[in-house]
Amino acid sequence: MNIKRNAALGIALAGSLALMAVPASQAQTTKSVALMFDLTGRGDKSFNDAAAAGLDKAKAEFTALKTTESVPSGADGDRAERLKTVLADKAGAVICVGFLWSPDCSKGAAANPTVYFASIDDSLSYQDGDNKGKPIPNSAGYSFAANEGSYLVGYAAALKSKSGKVGFIGGVEIDLIKSFEAGFEAGAKAAKKTIKITQKYATQPPDFTGFTDVPKGKAIAAAMYKSGIDVIYVAAGSTGNGAFIAAKESGKKPGQIFAIGVDSDQYQTISQANGRDYILTSMLKKVDVATYNFIKAYNAGTPITGSQNLDLKAGGVDFSKTNTKLLDAKTIAKVNKVKADIIAGKIVVPTTPTRA
């Protein structure tokens, strides 16, 4: 789903972000890919690590490929300079992870038409001139139907809840994250009409630290569990990892309370000491697949461009089934049934929460 950038997000880009085209003398001889991480980079156990997994798979398969990784210093930070650096270093393909990269990567793609760009969670468009607002032809924009995947975990949450109260923790209250909330809400209500849903966001834009504040995620989740909520879904980057810690420290056993992860299969990425055993399921957002497929196509000389809409039908989202101690076969079967109904068009999942 595309995000209204700059004005809608309140992002102030100080100074000129113009990116110089790579001189012809610097034309690449070896294929090179640069992965521009979102906030925190590797180690978030979620969004960034999913992109990293796609890169790592490509590196292992295409051993002649040169790869570079870069992590911004903050929400606004030094993105323009980092992008200039990888372009000067002859990157032939650039993967921009997260919508906060969009203004800079749009400028970079427009200034370097022979370099291929992928934008994860957004699309790139011309920022200036007669083509302003039009898609940049040497770019691919990946969107994921997070609302559909969130419907599945919301359905599972309501089925497993004993208290009839579930919670949603979002990182920053923007349209993209509200689509996660909307799907979770719709799925939970479809499974149990009487379910009560509480939502809380770590921060409001333009403060994007809500994606990187583990202590805040822990505090929000602890308060929810204390209030009687027994299942919490997090869509908050590394902030969400605090919810797993809160579950671990609650004094309750796995199965008495639950947590639901996001993006990656967090039952596989979170340690037991940090609450893995409480993770019922995760909403899988196949950023790893998108990243790998983009690199594979570029390496083969057939780069991917244009809008890439990855929904349930396309296999872009799903729910994890690895924690069989908590997610029983009966629940999996029921969730798979509504999954099939969404793919068949029998269920249309909203992108905006009602909060009713």
What does this structure look like?
- 34% of the residues lie in helices and 19% in strands.
- With 356 residues, it is an alpha/beta fold.
- The strands form two sheets. A six-stranded parallel β-sheet has the order 2-1-3-4-5-11, with helices on both faces. Strands 7-6-8-9-10-12 form a six-stranded mixed β-sheet, with helices on both faces.
- It is globular and about 55 Å long.
- The model is unreliable at 1-20 and 22-28 (pLDDT under 50).
Percent of residues in beta strands: 15-25%
The end-to-end span amounts to 23 Å
From the alpha-carbon coordinates, what is the Rg to the nearest angstrom? 20 Å
Structural class: alpha/beta
Shape estimate: globular
Helix content: 25-40%
Number of DSSP strand runs: 12
Task: List low-confidence stretches.
Answer: 1-20, 22-28
Order of helices and strands: EHEHEHEEHEHEHEHEHEHEEH
User: How are the strands ordered across the major sheet?
Assistant: 2-1-3-4-5-11
- The number of distinct helices, counting runs of at least 4 residues, comes to 10
Largest sheet: 6 strands, parallel
Mean pLDDT: 92
List keywords for this structure.
356 residues, alpha/beta, six-stranded parallel β-sheet, globular, disordered N terminus
Summarize the structure.
The protein has 356 residues and is of the alpha/beta class. The chain contains 10 helices and 12 strands.
Question: Topology of this protein?
Answer:
Elements: E1 32-36, H1 47-61, E2 66-70, H2 79-88, E3 93-97, H3 102-111, E4 116-120, E5 139-144, H4 146-160, E6 165-172, H5 175-191, E7 196-203, H6 214-226, E8 231-235, H7 241-248, E9 258-263, H8 266-269, E10 279-285, H9 287-299, E11 306-310, E12 317-319, H10 329-343
Parallel strand pairs: 1-2, 1-3, 3-4, 4-5, 5-11, 6-7, 6-8, 8-9, 9-10
Antiparallel strand pairs: 10-12
Helix pairs in contact: 1-9, 4-5, 4-10, 6-7
